[in-house]
Design brief:
The complex is a heterodimer of chains A (515) and B (103).
Chain A lengths: L13 H15 L4 E2 L2 H4 L19 E2 L4 H14 L3 E4 L18 E4 L6 E5 L4 E4 L5 H10 L4 E2 L11 H6 L15 E7 L5 E3 L33 E8 L1 E2 L3 E9 L5 H13 L7 E5 H7 L16 H11 L4 E9 L1 H18 L2 E4 H4 L3 H9 L12 H4 L2 E6 L2 E3 L2 H17 L6 E5 L3 E11 L3 H20 L12 H7 L2 H14 L15
Parallel strand pairs in A: 2-4, 3-4
Antiparallel strand pairs in A: 1-2, 5-6, 6-10, 7-11, 8-9, 8-10, 12-14, 12-15, 13-14, 13-18, 16-19, 17-19, 18-19
Helix pairs in contact in A: 1-3, 6-13, 13-14
Chain B lengths: L2 H14 L16 H13 L14 H10 L14 H13 L7
Helix pairs in contact in B: 2-4
The chains are: A alpha+beta (515), B mainly alpha (103).
């Protein structure tokens, strides 16, 4: 065995692993098979409250084509070695680039980064896994194409394919990313290449415009799963509107969330507001302003309500800060603006327009995200507690005011019990809300790290008892989250796994799916 | 001219006049160390999110270790994203630049 090797996949003998690595090197070249500790270090940086060792890869491989992936899978099937595919490999707070289980080989697809096609007439794109949002942004800018995409907050360094397959969300009218994807190419465990929807038909030119094809629509099973390696994804782009009017509405009290949601829901469902409305709490805004936590709270424990009120007053931040935009022509936006003004006046909110927002770091990054302009402004969150610990707890709720206050209070109580702050926002989808909470902790502090694990566990199970499930989860909790969705769904998932990946080599354990 | 074309023409005028980006490159290959700095590092280190790096004579080896391992809030960056050769150029740029020189 390679003397430097510390980590092996579960149940694989060192000699067998060495043989597999040798074969992989023959396919990919020595430089694209990473084995030594220094080269693997970037794959070990996780933000989760578990030891790095739990998610340490045995190796990483960086194929550059579908053909290479096909050849690699033949070797991995032969030796029954598991592989963990990543695209741009960010997924911060959800597991980063680290495998779901210790010892899996990371298949890093970042080198496959071609923007294969952008059709400016149909407003579609076809991209590979390694394409970043920044790259796509540059592509559209270079060609002066008036098209926008939707991206999540870590947009500059993350990419559309990986975000879509993890069912991430963004902030433009195309913010539900899976909904606006159209057509996938998937390399299956047996090396067959499947194109979904219309892409299955030879010579079809409708792959990126019609999702369903004929018979069962398969795209969904390749999201939040481990049934195949997605190597191409079609996505719809939005025509840049002639007039874009982002705004913020600030509200003074935590209890205002009820009337905010009830007032905005009809506008969202009717698409007067076409994008995902974000309702951000004070403690989401503060780190991105930036405000230093230490200026308001020192010592252990969660920040007090009094300190939060003081932050609001000192920095002109609302208890809730609503972000949305109007996307249209000047005429339609002028008409809809009157509706927004009436809603704000009727609910006691203060509107901040783009003009009035100048100089505010927190508002600027939000307004940029609402037009799909990449930035990393939200990384300010990670400075709040310091220490690089973060996991997202993100239960789904109905877009009803009564639900919000109930969820928020439950979460805040549990977080407070373990000494963590409520750093949360509600993202109003169409009829749902993603209640996104950043559980921030100091990962260099063992006690906080243990508490963060226990806190997430309690949040997950308390919410599940109330019937609230999370829309996405970090890899450390994949099994526990999957269990909250009941046994029948899991049994079907296992049957699919057995049919599509009988050797269990594709990311076993991802989203709780394994043989 | 159909309605969509009019809409798009309006959009070109409204959106892209002010949004020029001299550094734009969509090839998927970094064109210069400055480009990497602008499109990765600067989003935090020139944006009041993470500490300023220029003008501090940071030791090249230190930067290398932090980029590859991450550091607390900072994510790690892999060879597949920024190769060793490209990173060497970025490190040289950062460690030898005067305060504010890379903005």
């Amino acid at each position: 065995m390679n003397a430097k090797r510390k980590t092996l996949p579960k149940g694989i003998a060192a000699g067998e692993f060495d043989k597999a690595i040798k074969e992989l090197k023959k396919i990919l070249g020595n430089e694209n098979v990473l084995e030594d500790e220094l080269r693997l270090a970037p794959y070990n940086k996780i933000m989760m409250p578990v030891p790095n060792d739990q998610h340490a890869p045995s190796a990483a491989i960086t194929p550059a084509s579908v053909e290479e992936i096909q050849a690699v899978l033949k070797v991995l099937n032969k030796y029954k070695i598991p592989v963990y595919p990543i695209s741009t490999g960010k997924n911060l707070g959800y597991g980063s680039a680290a495998p779901v289980q210790r010892g899996q080989i990371v298949m890093d697809l970042r080198r496959m980064n071609k923007i294969i096609e952008v059709d400016p007439d149909l407003c579609t794109a076809l991209v590979e896994p390694g394409v970043t949002y920044q790259q796509l942004y540059d592509y559209l800018q270079e060609r002066k194409l008036p098209l926008w995409f939707s991206c999540p907050a870590p947009s500059a360094i993350a990419g559309p394919l990986g975000n879509m397959v993890d069912r991430g969300v963004g902030y433009t009218p195309y913010g539900e990313h899976f909904l606006f994807s159209c057509g996938m190419e998937v390399v299956l465990a047996n090396s067959e290449v499947l194109r979904t929807g219309m892409g299955a038909m030879p010579n079809s030119n409708t792959w990126q415009v019609f999702k369903w094809g004929y018979g069962p629509t398969l795209d969904g099973i390749f999201t939040q799963s481990n049934y195949g390696i997605v190597t191409k994804m079609g996505m719809w782009l939005m025509p840049a509107p002639p007039d874009f009017r982002p705004f913020c509405i600030q509200y003074p009290n935590e209890a205002d969330i009820t009337k905010i949601v009830d007032a905005l829901r009809p506008l969202r469902i009717a698409m007067v507001i076409p994008n995902a409305v974000v309702i951000a709490h004070t403690l989401w805004e503060a780190p991105c302003t930036p405000v230093k936590r230490a200026d308001y709270h020192t010592g252990p424990g969660a920040i007090s309500d009094a300190a939060v009120s003081k932050i609001q007053k000192d920095h002109n931040i609302g208890a809730w800060n609503v972000y949305a935009g109007l996307y249209g022509t000047k005429e339609t936006n002028d008409a809809n603006w009157k509706i927004i003004e009436a809603v704000a006046a009727g609910t006691g909110g203060k509107i901040i327009t783009e003009e009035q927002s100048k100089g505010s770091q927190a508002l600027q990054y939000r307004f940029d995200l609402m037009k799909g302009k990449p930035n990393l402004g939200e990384f300010g969150l990670y400075n709040w507690r310091g220490g690089g610990g973060s996991i997202w707890f993100a239960p789904v709720s109905q877009a009803k005011g009564s639900e919000t206050l109930k969820q928020m209070k439950t979460a805040k109580d549990i977080l407070g019990k373990y000494g963590f702050d409520y750093v949360g926002e509600f993202i109003v989808g169409w009829r749902d809300m993603h209640h996104v909470i950043d559980l921030l902790f100091d990962r260099s502090d063992d006690d906080q790290t243990k508490k963060a694990y226990a806190c997430y566990d309690e949040l997950l199970h308390t919410f599940a008892k109330e019937g609230y499930g999370v829309y996405r989860s970090n890899t450390a909790f994949a099994e526990k989250v999957a269990a909250t969705y009941g046994p029948v769904k899991r049994s079907v998932e296992k049957k699919l796994k057995k049919a599509l990946d009988p050797n269990n080599i594709l990311a076993p354990g991802r989203c709780g799916i394994s043989l | 001219m159909n309605g969509l074309s009019v809409f798009r023409l309006l959009a070109i005028t409204a959106t892209f006049v002010a949004a020029g980006n001299a550094q734009a490159d969509s090839s998927g290959k970094w064109q210069s160390s400055q480009e990497v700095y602008n499109k990765v590092c600067a989003y935090c280190h020139e944006a009041n999110v993470a500490p300023v790096l220029t003008g501090r004579n940071l030791i090249p080896q230190y930067i290398q270790v932090i980029v590859r391992n991450g550091n607390r809030a900072m994510p790690s960056f892999r060879e597949s994203e920024i190769s060793d050769a490209t990173l060497a150029g970025v490190i040289k740029l950062v460690s030898t630049s005067a305060p504010g020189a890379l903005k």
